[in-house]
Write a structure and sequence with these properties.
Blueprint (H helix, E strand, L loop, with lengths): L3 E2 L2 H9 L4 E3 L6 E5 L3 H11 L8 E3 L10 E3 L2 H10 L4 E7 L5 H4 L4 E5 L4 H9 L4 E2 L14 H8 L6 E2 L11 E6 L2 E6 L5 H8 L3 E2 L23 E4 L2 H7 L5 E5 L10 E4 L6 H17 L4 E5 L6 H12 L1 E2 L1
Parallel strand pairs: 1-9, 4-7, 6-10, 11-12, 13-16, 13-17, 14-15, 14-16
Antiparallel strand pairs: 2-3, 3-8, 4-8, 5-6, 6-7, 10-11
Helix pairs in contact: 1-5
Bound molecules: adenosine monophosphate (AMP) and magnesium ion.
Adenosine monophosphate binds next to strand 7, strand 10 and strand 11.
Length: 319
């Protein structure tokens, strides 16, 4: 029997009883549990096979709850929360003693987000506790953007995937931390850098492990299909080199018009937003086809293209 269901009351019941539920957000599906339940939080890590050094994002219904979890909120964090919540931005702030150490991997900061999805906002409003929710995929594999992706990963491990349809943004949130009072991007994501800079001025990006020991979990290899995947600028000439193999290609907007290839176009009309929303689903789809190799085209390196290139770089071998 399918574990996918739209029943919010069932999710409330399971979460209240320290069980896990996969929840929809506008970025990707999350594997959610009560942040104050040690049992639930441990199960998030064990179900995902996620290393304990990798902290979890806390999901809340409204920015009002920030005061109850943090010791200090920089002025620019308030501006960002006002501008982008509910939305695809996570803020990393100094935590207070109520936040369990397991959530933050022992760090003195906590990552917090108000997701912009009506089903999960309705769920959060009914719960007397916030939800810890990393992406609902086994550690290192492609993030889920449809309930069926989660079902195929975890049908034997959890009792419900709360169905909220396909994720509209389709890549993870942009994570912003603070050095003193200054915002720093720890992870590029579904909120474009340009939009953030329009609110708080220019910000630096420290999303590589060596650049920022403050952003654990930003591993070089992540989000990976099980099929060998390459990231290139010129897909057509790379495909030629592999003409004896079963080749899948993932292109931004132009078809290669080559019927011997399995091709997915991210957005015919060149919309970055559409491309982002289809990125992971397309990788899931190509991965299912048992190809010998997947060749992905590097996107224009601005707006959401920058975030998608970051994900593709971690998912692939760059040549
Ligand atoms: P996921 O929930 O799988 O999208 O991953 C959450 C990511 O948030 C982690 O891999 C970290 O990079 C980041 N994160 C969570 N908490 C913190 C924190 N306290 N400080 C810095 N980065 C964090
Ligand atoms: Mg993840």
């Amino acid at each position: 029997m399918s574990i996918i269901s739209t029943d919010i009351q069932k999710a409330v019941h399971l979460l209240t009883n320290e069980e896990l539920v996969a929840i929809p957000t506008e970025t990707v599906y999350g594997l959610a549990g009560n942040i104050y339940s040690e049992k639930a939080v441990k199960r998030i890590f064990s179900t995902k096979k996620r290393p304990f050094f990798n902290p979890l994002i806390v999901h809340i219904a409204s920015a009002k709850a920030l005061q109850t979890m943090t010791t200090h909120i920089p002025e620019k964090a308030k501006l960002l929360a006002d501008a982008f919540w509910p939305g695809s931005m996570t803020l990393v702030l100094k935590k207070n003693e109520k936040i369990p150490d397991m959530i933050t991997a022992g760090k003195d900061t906590v990552a917090i987000r108000v997701p912009n999805h009506p089903v999960t906002l309705a769920l959060l409003k009914q719960l007397p506790f916030p939800l810890a929710a990393p992406s609902a995929n086994p550690f290192g594999s492609i993030s889920p953007t449809k309930p069926e992706h989660v079902e195929s990963y975890f049908k034997n491990d959890i009792l419900q995937v709360l169905d909220g349809g396909a994720c509209s943004n389709g890549i993870e949130s942009t994570i912003i931390g603070f050095e003193k009072e200054t915002p720093v991007i720890f992870r590029l994501g579904a909120l474009a850098l340009e939009d953030i800079e329009a609110v708080v001025g220019s910000v630096s990006i420290k999303n590589k492990k060596e650049e920022s020991p403050d952003a654990p979990g930003m591993l070089a290899r992540h989000y990976a299909p099980s099929t060998q995947t390459l990231l290139v600028d010129d897909v057509a000439s790379e495909a030629k080199k592999h003409s004896t193999k079963k080749v899948g290609v993932l292109v931004f907007k132009e078809s290669l018009n080559n019927s011997s290839l399995t091709e997915i176009i991210l957005s015919d009309n060149g919309s970055m937003q559409e491309a982002a929303s289809k990125l992971y689903d397309s990788l899931h789809e190509l991965d299912r086809q048992k190809l010998d190799i997947i060749i992905a085209e590097r996107l224009p390196n601005n707006g959401l293209g920058k975030s998608m290139n970051d994900r593709l770089q971690r998912a692939t071998f760059t040549i």
